[in-house]
Recover the amino acids of this structure.
C-alpha cells in the first residue's frame, strides 16, 4: 500500500471512529476525547518501540516490554531501567499495565471497568515528568479529558462502555510508527483537527488555520532559506502553522509558540509531540500574548501568525512604556488588536528574519492610531516587504477577505513594497472557497519574482505609498479594472430601427385579426 493510500485509509478510520461514537455530543466537544486518546495510543506505541530497543540491547531474552509483570522483581528491575532512559530521551514513561493496548484489551475482552485505571494512567504520564526537563511539556496535558462527564453517558457503566468502544477501535489500527520516513499519523491527526474545525463554526478560528493558508505563510518565511534556527507563532492555536513551517524548511532547530486558550494550548503540545518534535525542540506557553508575553527578550528567524481578527484587548496606556509599543507612541484601538499583534511580532523578529501574518483588510486602510502605526512601520522602520490580498470566505467562521502582510527588517528591496491581488485565486466549494496548490504556486512564484503582472501584481515605490497617505488598500496599487468593450452606436441604432419595423409589421397583423373578428384594434397602423 502506498503512503498516500495508507493516509487516506487512516483518515477514514479515525474519522469514522470520531463520527460514529460521539453519539449526541457536539463534534467540537468530542474532539478533546478522540484526539486525546489518539495521542495516548501514540505515546504508548512509541514507548513500546523505545522499550523493546532498550531490551534488545540488554540481550537478556526479554523481547516485549508489554509482557512484563510489575510484581516480578527481575522484571521490575528492567522496567525501572527502561522508564529512567525514556524520561531522559523521549520525555515520559509508562508501566506495562498502563499501555494503551493493555487497557483496551481489559475493557473489551475482560469487560472490565477501566475508567479509573485510564484516569490514573493519564495522570501518571503527566506527573511522571515532574522535576524533569519535559515537565512543562507534559503538565496537565490530559486535563480536558473528563471521564466523569455525563456527556459520555448518564452512568459510570454507560461512560465506560463508550470509552471501551473508542479504545477498542483505535487499538485495532496500526499507526505504523516503525516507518520513520513517514508522517502518516501526523497528517491524519492534522486532518482530524481540520475536520473538527470545519464543524465548529466560528470557534474554529481559535485553534486552526486552513492548511493551504498555513502552507502559503510557511513558504513565504522559508523562501530562500535552507534552515530555520527558530520559528515563533504568538497565537499558535493547535500548532498547525508552526508544524507547516517545519515541513517546508529542510531543518527547523527550535519551535516557539504562545496560546491563550488552555484547551487549545494542550492540543498544540500534543500536536508537537505526535509529529515527533522532541520535547527539547519546542517551547509552547499558555498566556495572553499581548498582556503577558512569555518569550521576552527573544528574537526569531521566522515568525508566522493568524491572530484573532479584530479582537478586543486592554490598550492600557501603561503599555506605551512597553518596549514593544513605546517607539510608535500609539496603541491599537481597544476594539481592534490587529496592529498590536504586528507590533509585538516585529519586536521579536530577528534582524535577518521574515515575518508573515494574516490580517483582515481593514488594517490596510483604517485611520486613527492604526494609520499612525502603519505609517511608522513603513516610513521609520521600512519593514513592510509585501501585501498579498487573499480571497473572501477561506477561513472558518468568517467570510471576510483577508490579507497576508510580509515584514523584513533588513530588506533587499528597500525602495518599494510588493502588492499581489490574489482575491480571485480560489476554487468555489460547497460552503467555503478553497486555495488550491496551483494557487499557492502562482502566489509564491509571483512573490519571489517581484515583478509587475498585469491585473495581479505591482511593485509600488515608497513614494507611491507616501502619496497615498500610507493607505495600503490593494486596488490603489494593483489595477484590476476590466474595461467594457466599445459600443458600436451605429449598429445599436440600426438594430433599434429593425425592431421598430418588425413591431409595426406585427401590429398590422394583429389589426387584421381584429377586423375579421369585428372588434376594435388596440393599435393604429402607421401612427
Amino acid at each position: 500500500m502506498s503512503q498516500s493510500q495508507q493516509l487516506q485509509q487512516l483518515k477514514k478510520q479515525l474519522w469514522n471512529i470520531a463520527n460514529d461514537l460521539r453519539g449526541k455530543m457536539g463534534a467540537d466537544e468530542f474532539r478533546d476525547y478522540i484526539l486525546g486518546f489518539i495521542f495516548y495510543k501514540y505515546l504508548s506505541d512509541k514507548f513500546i518501540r523505545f522499550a523493546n530497543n532498550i531490551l534488545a540491547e540488554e540481550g537478556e531474552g526479554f523481547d516485549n516490554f508489554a509482557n512484563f509483570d510489575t510484581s516480578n522483581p527481575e522484571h521490575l528491575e528492567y522496567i525501572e531501567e527502561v522508564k529512567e532512559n525514556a524520561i531522559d530521551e523521549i520525555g515520559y514513561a509508562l508501566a506495562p499495565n498502563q499501555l494503551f493496548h493493555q487497557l483496551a484489551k481489559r475493557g473489551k475482552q475482560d469487560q472490565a471497568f477501566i475508567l479509573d485505571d485510564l484516569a490514573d494512567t493519564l495522570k501518571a504520564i503527566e506527573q511522571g515528568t515532574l522535576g524533569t526537563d519535559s515537565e512543562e511539556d507534559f503538565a496537565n496535558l490530559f486535563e480536558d479529558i473528563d471521564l466523569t462527564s455525563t456527556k459520555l453517558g448518564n452512568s459510570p457503566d454507560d461512560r465506560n462502555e463508550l470509552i471501551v468502544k473508542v479504545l477498542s477501535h483505535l487499538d485495532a489500527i496500526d499507526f505504523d510508527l516503525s516507518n520513520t520516513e513517514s508522517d502518516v499519523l501526523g497528517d491524519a491527526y492534522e486532518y482530524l483537527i481540520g475536520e473538527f474545525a470545519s464543524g465548529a463554526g466560528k470557534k474554529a478560528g481559535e485553534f486552526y488555520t486552513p492548511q493551504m493558508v498555513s502552507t502559503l505563510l510557511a513558504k513565504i518565511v522559508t523562501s530562500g532559506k535552507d534552515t530555520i534556527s527558530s520559528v515563533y507563532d504568538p497565537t499558535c492555536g493547535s500548532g498547525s502553522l508552526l508544524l507547516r513551517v517545519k515541513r517546508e524548511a529542510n531543518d527547523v532547530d527550535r519551535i516557539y509558540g504562545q496560546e491563550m486558550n488552555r484547551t487549545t494550548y494542550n492540543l498544540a503540545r500534543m500536536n508537537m509531540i505526535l509529529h515527533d518534535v522532541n520535547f527539547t525542540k519546542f517551547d509552547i506557553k499558555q498566556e495572553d500574548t499581548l498582556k503577558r508575553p512569555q518569550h521576552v527578550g527573544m528574537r526569531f528567524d521566522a515568525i508566522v501568525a493568524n491572530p484573532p481578527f479584530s479582537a478586543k484587548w486592554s490598550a492600557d496606556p501603561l503599555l506605551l512604556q512597553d518596549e514593544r509599543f513605546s517607539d510608535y507612541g500609539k496603541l491599537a484601538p481597544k476594539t481592534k488588536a490587529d496592529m498590536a499583534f504586528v507590533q509585538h511580532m516585529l519586536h521579536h523578529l530577528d534582524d535577518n528574519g521574515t515575518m508573515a501574518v494574516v490580517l483582515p483588510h481593514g488594517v490596510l486602510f483604517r485611520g486613527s492610531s492604526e494609520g499612525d502605526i502603519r505609517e511608522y512601520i513603513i516610513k521609520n522602520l521600512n519593514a513592510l516587504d509585501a501585501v498579498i490580498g487573499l480571497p473572501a470566505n477561506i477561513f472558518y467562521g468568517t467570510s471576510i477577505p483577508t490579507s497576508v502582510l510580509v515584514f523584513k527588517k533588513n530588506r533587499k528591496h528597500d525602495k518599494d513594497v510588493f502588492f499581489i491581488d490574489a482575491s480571485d485565486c480560489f476554487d468555489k466549494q460547497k460552503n467555503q472557497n478553497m486555495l488550491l496548490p496551483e494557487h499557492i504556486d502562482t502566489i509564491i512564484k509571483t512573490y519571489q519574482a517581484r515583478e509587475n503582472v498585469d491585473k495581479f501584481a505591482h511593485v509600488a515605490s515608497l513614494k507611491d505609498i507616501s502619496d497615498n497617505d500610507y493607505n495600503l488598500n490593494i486596488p490603489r496599487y494593483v489595477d484590476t479594472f476590466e474595461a467594457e468593450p466599445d459600443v458600436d452606436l451605429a449598429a445599436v441604432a440600426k438594430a433599434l430601427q429593425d425592431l421598430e419595423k418588425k413591431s409595426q409589421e406585427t401590429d398590422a397583423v394583429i389589426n387584421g385579426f381584429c377586423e375579421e373578428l369585428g372588434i376594435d384594434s388596440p393599435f393604429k397602423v402607421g401612427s
